[in-house]
Amino acid sequence: MSQNVEGVQEALQYFQRTGQPMWDTIDPAVEVYDHDIPDAGSYRGHDGYARWLTDWGRAWSDFSLETERFIEAGDKVVVVFQLTAKGKGSGVEVKRRDGMVLTLRDGKTIRLDYYNNVPAALEAAGLSEQDAHADS
């Protein structure tokens, strides 16, 4: 397992335990693009990252993430996970497979792209579904 994958796993486990990002693994100039929030634009820096988490969480009264896979693609790591969430206003439960693409430099996330479907995340990392299952 690569250092990038190990670092992303550790940071995600920390977030799941504490609800806080592991800031020392996130570059101060990080860019976040949430392709699930219409017209969200980008979030920049640690303040932007924190604002993105707030914006993303605002839709849910409760959520959990169950990680399925970590896939390395050069300087990127794709995280595939099952999202289970309850809409804050509607109370509707959502269950779906989402994906994040983290671009890393020197062990730190410099860009995070969030997708509400796995094929879009894989495509963004230059992978196909077939690539994602090659080592399964």
Q: Top keywords for this entry?
A:
4 helices; globular; alpha+beta; Nuclear Transport Factor 2, Chain: A; six-stranded mixed β-sheet; 136 residues
Enumerate the strands of the largest sheet in spatial order, edge to edge or round the barrel.
2-1-6-5-4-3
What is the rounded distance between the termini? 14 Å
Task: Give the H and E element order.
Answer: HEEHEEEEHH
CATH topology: Nuclear Transport Factor 2, Chain: A
CATH class: Alpha Beta
Instruction: Work out the radius of gyration.
Output: 14 Å
Shape assignment? globular
* Helical run tally: 4
Query: Helix fraction?
Result: 25-40%
Task: Describe it.
This protein has a single domain (3-126), classed as Nuclear Transport Factor 2, Chain: A (Roll), CATH 3.10.450.50. It has 4 helices and 6 strands; from the N terminus they run H-E-E-H-E-E-E-E-H-H. It has helices at residues 3-18, 45-57, 118-124, 129-132, and strands at residues 26-34, 42-44, 60-73, 76-87, 93-105, 108-115. The longest helix has 16 residues, at 3-18. The chain starts with a helix and ends with a helix.
Helix-strand layout with pairing:
Blueprint lengths: L2 H16 L7 E9 L7 E3 H13 L2 E14 L2 E12 L5 E13 L2 E8 L2 H7 L4 H4 L4
Short overview:
The protein contains four helices and six strands. The protein is α+β, with helices and mostly antiparallel strands and about 140 residues long. It has a six-stranded mixed beta sheet with strand order 2-1-6-5-4-3, with helices on both faces.
